[in-house]
Amino acid sequence: MVDAATETVGIRAARHARPKPSIFKRKSTIAFLMALPLIVIILLLVLYPALYSVHLATLNKSMERFVGFGNFEFLFKRETFWMVVKQSCIFAVTAVLFKALIGFFVAHFVHAIPDKGQRKWRGMLLVPWVIPPAMSTLAWFWLFDPSYSAFNWLFALVGIDPVPWLGDPYWARFSVILVNVWYGAPFFMIMYLAALKSVPEQLYEAASIDGANWWQRLWYVTLPMMRNIISITVLFSLIVTFANFDIVRVLTAGGPIDQTHVFATWAFKLGIEGGDIPLGASVSLFMVPILGVAAIFILRDITKRGNEA
Amino acid sequence: MAAAIAETKGGPSRPSTYGSISRSRKRALVWSYFFLVLFAIFFLMPPIYMFITSLKTSQEISAATNPWWVFNPTLSNYVELLTSNQYLTFFKNSAIISIVVVTITMLVSVPAAFALARMKFWGSATLATGVFLTYLIPETLLFIPLFKTFAFVYEYTGIQLINNWWVLLVIYPTLTVPFCTWIMIGYFASIPKELDEAAIIDGASYFQTLTKIFIPVALPGIIAAMIFAFTVSWAQFLYPLAFTTSTDQLVLPVGIITTLIKGDVFNWGQIMTGALLGAAPPLIIYAFLMDYYIAGLTAGATKG
Q: Are the beta carbons of B283 and A124 separated by less than 8 Å?
C-alpha cells in the first residue's frame, strides 16, 4: 500500500519534471480557451442578471430612484405577498412529497415485474416527463373545463356532484399540485428504478435468510442503499418545483383571485405584465433562500462523493 | 417469467406446502401489474384525451355526449392547422431555435467539459462546481433582469432584442449548457486516462485527442446531452412568453396558448391538435432513442 503510494508519487513527479514548463503553461492556456465560451455564458447571462436583479429590487417603479428596502417593505405589508409565500411552500412541499412517494412505489412495481416487460412499462410511464409541460397542462386545462370537464362527466356516472376544479380556490390549489405531481413523478420513478437496479441482490438474499420480512427488507436494505439518490432527487425537484412557472401559468394564471400564485407567476404578473420591474425582481428574489439551502446540501454531497472517488 | 424460474429452481420434489415463497411472489406480481395499470392510466390519460379531442369537430365537443369517445372522427383539425401559415411559422421558429441551440450547446459544452475533465487549469475545479450550481439557478429568477438588460441594450446600441425570435438563441444556452457540460464531464472522466495518454504520446494535439478519441468514445453521452438540449429548448415557455409578442416571432408553446385561445372562445379541437403536434417531436425522439434519453436523465445525479 505504502509502496504503491510512493510509486505513484514518483511517477507523477517524473511526469511533472519531463515536459518543459512552457508546454505545461500552454496546456492550461488551451484548456482555459476551450472553457472560455462556457465562462462567458455563465458570467454574462447567469451571474450578471442574478446580481443585477438584486440591484433592480432596490429601485422605485420608474427605476430612477434608489429606495433601499422600500420594495420589500411594500411587499411585507401586502396580504397577497404572504399568501404567495404560503402557497409556494405548500405547492412545492406537497408536490415533491407526492412525486417522491408515487415515484418510489411505481419504481418498485416496475422492478418487481419480469425484466422482459420492464422496458415497455418504463417507456410508457415516462411519457408525462417527455411532453413539454405547457402542452400537457393544456390537456389538463381541458380536462378541468368548467362546463365540459371529462372528469365531471365520469363523476356524474357514479353520482358525484361536479367538482369546480379551477373555479374554487381550494380545488384550484389541489389541481395545480395534481398536475405537477403527474408531470414530475415519472422522473422520480426513473431515478429510483436506476437506484433499485444498483442494489446488489445478495443483500436481499442475506436479509431473507436472516428472516427479514418485506417491510424490514425495504427499511434496512433498500432505503439505506438508495439514500443518496433519494436526497439528491428530492433536492433537485424541490428547486424546480419551487421555481415552477409553466403549470401554474397555463392552468390558472394565478387565479381565482390570486389564490394559486407562486413566486414565479406572481413575479411575472407584477414585473412583465404590470410593468413594475423592481417589484417583480423583489418577488423573484424570495426564491433565493431555498435555492441557497438546497445548493449547500447538494454541494456537500458532491464534495463528499468527490472525496470517496 | 421470474415466478416460473423461481418455481423450477425451488425443485419439483418439494411438498407443495413449502411453496409459500413462490406463491407470495406470484401474488406480489399480480399486485404490481394491477398498480402499474392504474398508474399507466393516470400517466397516459392527458395525452390520450388530447388525441381523442383532436379527432372531434367543434359540434361534437360542445354536444353533451360521452367525452371519452369519438363518434364522428375527423382529421379537419389537423388539416386546418397544418395548412395555416401561422401555425407553421410557430413550428418553424421552434425547430430552427431548437436545432441551433443544440449546435451551440454542443460547441460550447463539449470542449469545456474536455478541458474541465482532463486539462486542469487554475480554478478549473471551482468552475466545474460553478457549472453545476448554475444549473440550479432557475430561469424564473433571471427573466426580469434579462428583460431590463435587453431594454438597456436597445437604448445604448439600438439593437432591438425584445420581440425577436433569435434573442432566444442567446438565452436558451444558459438553460442547456451547464447541464450538458456537467454530464459530459462525467462521461469524459469515465474514459481511461491511458487512452488519451497514448494519443498524446503518438503526437496528437489536444484538439485531435478530443475529436478522434473523446467524442467517438463518449458518443452515447453526447447523444444524451443533445436530446436533453433539444427537449429543453423545445419545451421552454417562460422566456419566449416574456421576450416575444408578435405572432410571427412566437415559438410553438407560446403560440398555441396565445393565438388559439381567443378571448372566451376556445376551439378545443384545434388547441388539442396543436398541443399534440407540438409534443410530437420530443415524443418521437424519445420513442426512438429512449435509452439515451434515460441515460441523460439519470446521468446528472448518478455520474456526479
A: no
Residue pLDDT, tens place only, B25-72: 788 788 888 888 888 898 998 999 989 888 888 777 777 777 788 877
Half-sphere exposure of A269 (CA within 13 A, CB side): 19
- Residue among B142, B257, B301 whose CB faces A250 most closely: B257
Which of A222, A234, A157, A246 is CA-nearest to residue A191? A234
List the one residue out of B263, B261, B237, B231 whose CA is nearest residue B250: B237
Q: Which residue of B has its CA nearest to A31?
A: B115
Task: Kindly tell me if the per-residue pLDDT of B103 is higher than 90.
Answer: yes
With a threshold of 0.85, tell me whether the complex ipTM lies above it.
Answer: no
Cα A242 to Cα A94, A245, B43, B204: the distances in Å are: 11, 9, 22, 48
Interface test with B, best of A135, A218, A298 (most B CBs within 10 A): A135
All domains in chain A, ordered by first residue = 2-56 (no CATH), 73-308 (1.10.3720.10)
Q: Which residues of A touch B295 (CB under 8 A)?
A: none
Task: Encode pLDDT of B203-247 as tens digits.
Answer: 888 888 888 888 888 888 899 889 889 988 998 888 888 888 887
Q: How many CA atoms lie within 13 A of B210 on its CB side?
A: 22
The architecture of the domain spanning B76-302 is Orthogonal Bundle (1.10)
Distance CA A271, CA A269 (A): 6
The tally of CA atoms less than 13 A away on the side-chain side of residue A74 is: 16
Band (B304; pLDDT cuts 50, 70, 90): very low
Closest-CA residue in chain A for B144? Answer: A281
Whether the pTM exceeds 0.95: the reply is no
Per-residue HEC secondary structure of chain A comes to CHHHHHHHHHHHHHHHHCCCHHHHHHHHHHHHHHHHHHHHHHHHHHHHHHHHHHHHCCECCCCCCECCCHHHHHHHHCHHHHHHHHHHHHHHHHHHHHHHHHHHHHHHHHHHCCHHHHHHHHHHHCHHHHCCHHHHHHHHHHHCCCCCCHHHHHHHHCCCCCCCCCCCHHHHHHHHHHHHHHHHHHHHHHHHHHHHHCCCHHHHHHHHHCCCCHHHHHHHHHHHHHHHHHHHHHHHHHHHHHCCCHHHHHHCCCCCCCCCCCHHHHHHHHHHHCCCHHHHHHHHHCCHHHHHHHHHHHHHHHHHHHHHC
B281: preceding bond cis by omega (within 30 degrees): no
